[in-house]
Amino acid sequence: MEDAVVFGATGFIGRWTVLHLLEQGRAVTAVVRRADDGLGRWLRERGVPGTRLTVVEGDVTAGPGLGLSASVERAADVRDVFNAAGVYRFGMGREEARTVNVEGALNVLNWAAARPALRRLVHVSGYRVGLDPRPRHPLPEAELAALYRNKGAYEGSKAEGDAAVRVAAARLGVPLTVVNPSSVIGHSLTGEAGQYLGLASLVRDLWTGRLPALPGGARTFVPVVTVDHFARFMAAVPEHDPEPGGLHWVLDPATPDLPDLIRLLADHLGVPAPRIRVPVGVIRRLPSALTGAEPETLGFLTEDRYDTGSADRVAASAGLRRPPVEDALRRWADRLVADRFGAAPAARPGGFHSVAGSRTYVAGDRTSPRLVLLHGLPLDGDSWHGVLGELDSTSPAPHPETAADRFPALVADLPGLGRSSPAGGAAADWLAELLEPVRTRPVIVAHSAAAAPALRYAAAHPGRIAAVILLSPYFLQRRPSALTLLLAAPALGRMGPDRLASTLLGPAPLSEDARRAVASAAAGLRRPGVARRTARALRAAHRPAERAALRTLLGGPVPVHLVAGELDPLTDSPVPATVIPGAGHHPHLTHPAAVAEIVRQVLLRPVVDDCPPPTTPEIMTGPRPHHPRES
To answer: Is 205 helix (H, G, I), strand (E, B) or coil?
Structure first.
């Protein structure tokens, strides 16, 4: 049996605690509800081997034995037990919350008390509880009912669980340390998140334009701590907290007050911050259906400050330093948006950068890409995931590196579209600034409306890029009707993912990458102004003068490769094109392998200045599903 046991090992805090214990060289038993929950894979993806990890099934709600096998239940050599199990959700009933946060916590404590070699039980509580130096448990029913009525099921259960564990530990002589984290945000370097309630839901409302007013006052304080700092602190407690019985508030006192925190993130994300503040007392008196506020969250909106002295001493002994909180908040916000606030974890997460007056969402390699991928309307950069995945899978076997190493890509959302805020000037100027840090000569792959900035950049900076691939170049295809262009904005703003998918791609079944791409686009179109700007860009792109101007740029010194779907052909092209059978206007979504093969062939060609375009068309073979054209 390993010397450290972690309960709740697949939760947001638990899995990072396992990771840092393994990094310390500890032998760890992770107690999970299902053995096939992917913890080992998650650790390997972060560079931590599982050679010293044992995963066992158990359940803190299963009574004194915790549902553990007999051999684990009898283990006598356990030194440290970490209880990160808990249920964090608003709107629960009292008994549902108590089952895990009170009874489950006591089950873990009683199990730990029976370990003869126990050095420490580290219990995760909460920063808004544990302030009473003389906790009482059990409470009379009238007091208990008042506790849950006033605080709600989640915070009430955390308060009762904290008191229960402290009282029982004193009675049984269990060497207990209680750690009280504030709002736990994503990893300090990657922003990787794992829970999307509380402060994260406030950021979601800010991002989606549903935060017209900010709850609380000018000095409302919602402190944060990054998950990696907190997990390292947890792992360090047995070695660096000299005596049991400690109560440690783990948070960053430098967290900006809530109005300043929201302004910081609004500036970073390129969205407006609310200018109005509404006192919590006013919100409590209004119906939640009117305010949109979850009543249980209001208790966290106070001006209280917390004594972190004891936690600071433990951290100093362990050599831990808090990461810069404002940088951590920005990275966390990046990852929340990339993961669509938990709806779809990003395969290639990006972040926001200032480009030509736009807060531009960018993923990938900003300095040494071999590919620059620009999306069309009404999509965003996530539309390239299928093609990038196919490039990964077609990386030649003799090369030990992955395609991400061989074909690093820069993927950006166009200004004012997808996740990027509007720019101050033309899209071509935005692209020039986006590519200013690039030190390679990449191939630009532009879908549909992105052909305009791609061609103008190539004409202005021929020595900076190797080639341009235009996928479904709209200015060489049939022009949509005036009515379609006129009705685009209201139609796009009302479309959910399913309707948008059928409109763009037809009724054929979609790959998971295509579904995710369309869902991301649909989510973006529901944000304030995005559908309107998309429709405006669509109308501007189809002006006759614009279409004619782009045709004149096809004969420049940079090789331009045209690619079109068989079902959405080029109608007036001065140069040949590669045709993808069975594809419509979005072949990178419906036929990503075919597009990836074209891209790979262009990438592997030597860069030759003044290289002419292909002289004969290529016809590729492949499946032939029906896909109607959509501009």
So the answer is: helix
C-beta of residue 185 within 8 angstroms of C-beta of residue 225: yes
Q: Give the predicted TM-score (pTM) of the model.
A: 0.91
**In the block, residue with structure tokens 């000018």:** 218
Q: What is the pLDDT of residues 244-255, one digit of tens each?
A: 999 999 999 999
Output the CA torsion sign for 189, 191, 193, 199: positive
- Per-residue model confidence as pLDDT tens digits over 103-142: 999 999 999 999 999 999 999 998 888 888 889 999 999 9
**Which residue(s) pair with 446 in the sheet?**
374, 470
Q: Which two tokens stand for residue 93?
A: 């009933």
Contact (CB, 8 A) for 153 and 94: yes
Nearest to 309 by CA among 362, 246, 222: 246
Q: Which among 81, 97, 294 is positioned nearest to 200, based on CA atoms?
A: 294
pLDDT at 533 over 70: yes
- pLDDT interval class at 394 (50, 70, 90): low
Task: Please answer whether residues 264 and 330 qualify as being in contact, where contact means their C-beta atoms are separated by less than 8 angstroms.
Answer: yes
List the structure tokens of 35: 């053995």
Pair type for strands 358-364 and 350-355: antiparallel
Q: Which residue has the tokens 């606030």?
A: 341
* Separation CA 81–CA 225 (nearest Å): 22
CA dist., res. 6 & res. 128, Å (int) = 23
The answer for 356, left when phi > 0, alpha when psi is -120 to 50, beta otherwise, is: left
Other Cβ atoms less than 10 A from the Cβ of 415: the count is 28
CA distance 177 to 80: 11
User: How far, in Å, CA of 244 to CA of 247, rounded?
Assistant: 9
- Pair 271, 207: CB distance under 8 Å: yes
